[in-house]
Amino acid sequence: MKPASSRATALPQSGIRELMALAELVPDVIHLEVGEPSFTTPEHIIRAAFADALAGWTRYTPTAGLPTLRQAVAERHTPLLGRAVDAAEVVISVGAVGALAAGIFALCETGDEVLIPDPGWPNYRSMVQLADAVPRPYRLSPEAGYVPSAGDVEHLFTDRTKAIIISNPSNPTGSVLPGLTIKAMVELAVERGVYVIADEVYGDLVYDGEYVPAGRFDEQSVITVAGCSKTYAMTGWRIGWAIAARPIADLMTKLQEPLVSCPPSVSQRAAEAALRGPQDAVSTMRETYRRRRDLACAILEPAGLLAARPGGAFYAMVDLRQLGMSSGALARLLLDEEHVATAPGDTFGTSCDGMLRISVASPDEAVQEGCQRIVRFAARHAFGAAAKSSERGV
């Protein structure tokens, strides 16, 4: 038989998934490795979807999504973007990941370059590589709160740069970018004729600062990506969306046809119920995540283990670089010794080797106990690292 696709074969395995598989073998493990809300989808959304399924909403839909849902998304983003969003600019996708992939494939040709955040969600790199484009990381420093500056990024632009991805709030750092930073990044991209893909799926989960959408500063070059998974605890329903200028939105719709045909019909109806229904549950979940963020910070900060205080999303980067081990080794040893599952930092970029990402979407007791065990682990191994340095005369 002829070999399989070299492009697909070359894609790295997810470090998060590897740790999840190892964690399944530990019966009493504390799960802090995956960004999965501990909440069930609000009951009114489930009931609405159940009624719609019984009423026959079980068939194909238009490739770009149900017109009523596209309109609901347009109405939701109109005040956020400060302009009237047309439903024709909205593409409903299979999760926000589907919108990101469709956007990258709609823009990129072989050899094009896409600037991606480091640290950043590893799927950005994979999607760019699958599009036969070149991912070029721009570094985010914990000393700067993981906030980039346009000046630091500008030198990475070349004639081949097609797009820059901005994650706000960020996975994995939880950083919330100031409005002036977003504005400067968009203006730089517009000046260079480059598209901005704004991953804003955590936009409703901000605790410090303000969520400022990139699309507020330009409607032609910015593709806004969001969805229901994090805001409404609907990860398994797989509904996300993109807002883009009509030519790009049309291309993204064309790409969805051969890949997914259309988003799932019942899930789209559930998403519409989420957007148009009461928002009390969103506020409750946001305040719960804020409390868990504060709980994690109260334990990790005094121990000097918090790389930067997260202002949104539900993640934090734990800095264990002083232990002198790789992220993968740290994650496996922590799982083995303390039964705490985390995500290796280098999964999100080379700048985070020696760090671990934790999710504070887990229940309070898991966050508290897990962070306490991490502090205990760090103290134990820091002593060992210091002893080894002393033996070497360092």
What does this structure look like?
This protein has helices at residues 6-10, 15-23, 43-54, 67-81, 95-107, 122-130, 150-154, 179-192, 246-260, 265-276, 280-300, 327-338, 364-391, and strands spanning 30-31, 90-94, 113-118, 134-139, 161-167, 195-199, 222-227, 239-243, 315-319, 340-341, 343-344, 355-359. It is an alpha/beta fold and 394 residues long. It has two domains: 6-40 and 280-391, Aspartate Aminotransferase, domain 1 (Alpha-Beta Complex); 45-276, Type I PLP-dependent aspartate aminotransferase-like (Major domain) (Aspartate Aminotransferase, domain 2), CATH 3.40.640.10. The strands form three sheets. A seven-stranded mixed sheet has the order 2-8-7-6-5-3-4, with helices on both faces. The chain has a three-stranded antiparallel sheet with strand order 9-12-11. Strands 1-10 form a two-stranded parallel ribbon. Helix 4 (67-81) packs parallel to helix 10 (265-276), helix 5 crosses helix 6 and helix 5 crosses helix 9 (246-260). The longest helix is centred in the last third of the chain and has 28 residues, at 364-391. It is globular and about 60 Å long.
H-E order: HHEHHEHEHEHEHEEEHHHEHEEEH
What would you give as the CATH superfamily of the largest domain?
Answer: Type I PLP-dependent aspartate aminotransferase-like (Major domain)
Rough outline = globular
Enumerate how many helices there are, as a single number. Answer: 13
Question: How many domains, as an integer?
Answer: 2
Strand order of the largest sheet: 2-8-7-6-5-3-4
Q: What share of residues are in beta strands?
A: 5-15%
- CATH architecture annotation name of the largest domain: 3-Layer(aba) Sandwich
